[in-house]
Amino acid sequence: DGSFTGAQIIDIALSRASSSLFRLSLPDSLKASALTRLRTPDADSDAFRSALYPADKASDVLRDYITAVADELKENPLVVSILDGSTLRLLLKDEDDFAMLAESLFTELDDEDEGKISKSEIRNALVQMGAEMGVPPFSEFPKLNDLLRKHGADGEEKLGQAQFAQLLQSVMQDLEEELSKENVVVIRNIQVVNGSKLRKLLANEQELKTVVEKVFRERVDGRDGLRSTEIIRSYLEKNAKELGLPLVQAEVAAVLLYDAVFDDIVTKEKDGTELDKEELGKLVKDILQKFAEQLEANPVQQDLSYIEEE
C-alpha cells in the first residue's frame, strides 16, 4: 500500500550504509545512537519501529536516519582492517618474531604450567592473535574451521612448545594463502577520540558552565596545595569518558597528550595568586580548546573493551 514501518525504514537505511562500508554490519551501539538523533517522536522506542509511514514521510525519515548514521560516524569513526594475509606474511617471514609470538601464546595458554597444551588450543591462539595480527574472527571467516580440521588441530593430543609452534606455523601459512585470495574486512573494537564531543561541549555554554562549576567545587572542597591546573587535570582525567577525552589509563598516547596540553598552559598562579572563578572558567575553556585542537590533528585510538570495563 506504499507505507513502511519504522523497522523497514531502518533496514533499508542500514543496507545502504552497509553497501558503502564494504558490506559491513554497523555496530549495534552506532545504530542505537543514530536512532536517538532522529527528531521523530519516540524514535528510540518500539513505537517508532512499529509505526506506519506513508511513502513521502518514509522517504524523509530514511534520509534523516542515513544522515544521523553519517553524523555518528563523523563523531565516532569506525576503525576497519582489511585482512589480506600481509600481516601474517610478515610474522612468518621473521623467524625471531614468529618464535617470540609462538612462545608467548604457548605460555599464555599453558594455564597449568605443564609444558604441554592440547592441539585444540590452536583455536584460542588464533583468537588471541585477532585482527591486530591479521587473524579474522571465526564468525567472519568460517574457513578457519576447515584449516584447523585439515591440520588436525581440533583434537586433545598434547603438544610441547616446539610442536605447538610448528602446528601454529602451518595453520598461519595456510591462512595467509587463503586471505590473499579472499580478503576479510572487519570492524576493530577500537574507539577513535577525535575531539568531536569536546567541540560540541565547547559550543554549548550551559554544558561548559557546568564543567567549570564542578571544577570550582573541587577546588573549594579542600584540594589545598594544588594549583588550578593540577585540579583541572585531575577532574578531566576522572571524567574523561563523559567529556570526550582519552583515558590516561588506556593509552600511553593519552598521557603524552595530557602532558603536552598542560605543559603549554601558563597561569597567573606562578606568583602565588589564586585564580578567581571567572579566570578559572577561562582557563578550563582554554585547556579544553587545546585538547580539541590536538585531538582533531592527532586522534587517539583506544581499546573499546578497556573503556567498557571502566
Automatic annotation (TrEMBL):
Gene3D superfamilies: EF-hand (1.10.238.10)
Domain EF-hand: 97-132
GO molecular function, one term: calcium ion binding
InterPro entries: EF-hand-dom_pair, EF_hand_dom
Domain of life, per lineage: Eukaryota
Protein name as it appears in the record: EF-hand domain-containing protein
Organism: Vigna mungo
